[in-house]
Every structure is written in structure tokens, then in C-alpha cells.
Amino acid sequence: MKAALTALTGLALAAGVACFSDRTAGPVASLAECRVPVTVIDSMHYLVAIRDFAFHPDSLAVPVGATVTWVNCEPPATDAHSSTSDAPAWDSGLFQSGARFSRTFPSGGTFPYHCSVHTYMIAKVVVQ
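^ thats the sequence. predicted structure below, dont judge the formating
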């Protein structure tokens, strides 16, 4: 049991490192890495996976000053997605499978957002 927990922890850390690496070519995260349920990279970095045409998690609480990174974890032949604020706070533009988009939240509030292509994909970031 302890070995399994250690292996899972290692895989989770690898997923976080892959998502925040400085790679400029190729996918940022593999589909296997995207399936690991990691939302907290560290106290100021959070991850939202886009997979199965939904944001995971669909509600994320972060502290003021935190950075949220969205990673498109859909298979390569799937439509591009976006992270688009319901208010004019941010718009990632479309990003393909394996690509990422990050935004820092400098002030508190609730920030609902959606995918501009698939408007039924909705979620929110709550900055406390």
C-alpha cells in the first residue's frame, strides 16, 4: 500500500512538473499525466485540466496572487478549447490538445468562465 501511494505521489509530481515546464514545442502534458487528479501544484500554482469537454475541477478556490494554468488534455484530433472569462477579464484564445494557458489573479472575487467554442463548458475560479 505504501509503495502504491509513493508511486502515485511521484506520478502526481511528474504531472505538475510537466505542466509547468518550459517546453516550447510539442505537447505540454501527455494524456496519462492529465488523468492524474492534481489541482494544486504548490500554494500559489493551480491546475485545471480540460478533458471530456469539461473543466476539471469546475470550481477552484485559490488565494489572491495565485496563478491558474489550464491544460487542454483532450486527444489530439479534438476541437480546440479556450478559457474565456464571462466578464472581460481574460480570454486565452483557442488552444489545441497539450497546450496550456496561465493567468494570475491579483484580487479577490468570483470569476466565472467558459469555453468560447463549447459554451456549455462552464466553471469558476474563486479568489479568496
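The CA atoms of residues 27 and 98 lie 4 Å apart.
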